[in-house]
Write a structure and sequence with these properties.
mainly alpha
């Protein structure tokens, strides 16, 4: 075991939420996650996994991944403000 108990708890919470996505039990898993004292750590783990997906999309280039995310964010904010 190379991580701390808190790291593993956060990862378990993240995977609980991810594994229930688009499933009938997602609402319950989301409620449990939102009430989890480790919410901050769970969200950090989820953000890291999501960022890793963008790095893969950007052919392993983290800077390119940041640029993609910035464009997506700008587009979402523009649409929000319509």
């Amino acid at each position: 075991m190379t991580g701390s108990a808190a790291e593993y708890a956060a990862r378990a919470g993240m995977y609980q939420l991810l594994s229930s996505f688009a499933q009938p039990q997602f609402s319950q898993a989301l409620d449990e996650t939102l009430s989890d004292p480790a919410l901050r750590d769970i969200l950090t783990s989820l953000a890291a996994v999501a960022f890793g997906g963008y790095v893969r999309l950007a052919d392993g280039d983290p800077q390119k991944a940041f640029e993609i995310i910035a464009r997506e964010r700008q587009a979402a904010e523009d649409l929000r403000d319509l």
